[in-house]
TrEMBL record:
<dbReference type="Pfam" id="PF08327">
    <property type="entry name" value="AHSA1"/>
</dbReference>
<protein>
    <submittedName>
        <fullName>Activator of Hsp90 ATPase</fullName>
    </submittedName>
</protein>
<dbReference type="InterPro" id="IPR023393">
    <property type="entry name" value="START-like_dom_sf"/>
</dbReference>
<dbReference type="InterPro" id="IPR013538">
    <property type="entry name" value="ASHA1/2-like_C"/>
</dbReference>
<comment type="similarity">
    <text>Belongs to the AHA1 family.</text>
</comment>
<feature type="domain" description="Activator of Hsp90 ATPase homologue 1/2-like C-terminal">
    <location>
        <begin position="36"/>
        <end position="138"/>
    </location>
</feature>
Length: 209
């Protein structure tokens, strides 16, 4: 697989916010990207069980409000908001912890804008890895979604191939993403701490830790 890393990194807007959730301070990792498609097609791509494995991962469950889902080899949870074709929210339950994912879609010129927010309480994992821990992961997903929309017939996400993950191209993408998430976090956290976390996260994703 050959990708234009600078162009793809530049297509995503990143932000880290501090918010209050249920009386506790929480962090919001926010990624926004516009795709060359309609809102309706983008909604179908993120909610259709037949399309999800082509850019993300196999997902099983009941795709409706209150339904339970399971991402193969990853998180599970409950769908807490489902308003086609614009709003989706769910719990993200993994490794004994619970966080929250919210996705909003909107028309953006001739395309469709996706805004993804991952909300979590800053605990030990955040202290070590910071925003990039989920930021890089979701950005790989946004890359997969871009590739899927460019070639909908493709059966498997190329970025999920371990062989690609070991390439210089993949590492360049993940390092660039990690750098941007470090800068986004530094806007709301101590800069030295945020950038140190970003370095730890980049090494983890690139298999260097």
């Amino acid at each position: 697989m050959s990708i234009d890393v600078p162009s793809l990194i530049g297509a995503v807007t990143r932000e880290v916010r501090n918010v209050e959730r249920e009386g506790r301070t929480a962090r919001v990792v926010l990624a926004t990207r516009t795709y060359d498609t309609s809102v309706e097609d983008l909604w179908d791509a993120i909610s259709n069980a037949e399309r999800l494995p082509r850019w993300f991962a196999p997902v099983t469950g009941d795709f409706k409000l209150g339904g339970k889902y399971q991402v193969q080899g990853n998180a599970s949870g409950t769908i807490t908001r489902c308003e086609p074709p614009k709003h989706l929210a769910l719990t993200w339950e993994f490794g004994g912890g619970v966080s929250w994912v919210e996705v909003d879609l909107a028309k953006d010129g001739d395309g469709a804008r996706l805004e993804l927010r991952h909300i979590a309480y800053p605990e030990a994992h955040w202290d070590q890895f910071g925003a990039g821990a989920v930021g890089i992961g979701w950005e790989l997903g946004l890359l997969g979604l871009y590739l899927h929309l460019s070639n909908p017939s493709q059966a498997k996400p190329p970025e999920s191939d371990p062989a690609w993950g070991a390439t210089d191209e993949a590492k360049s993408f993940m390092r660039a993403s990690g750098d941007r998430w470090g800068e986004a976090e530094a806007a709301v956290e101590d800069r030295e701490v945020a950038l140190k976390r970003a370095e730890t996260t980049k090494k983890f994703y690139c298999g260097e830790s």
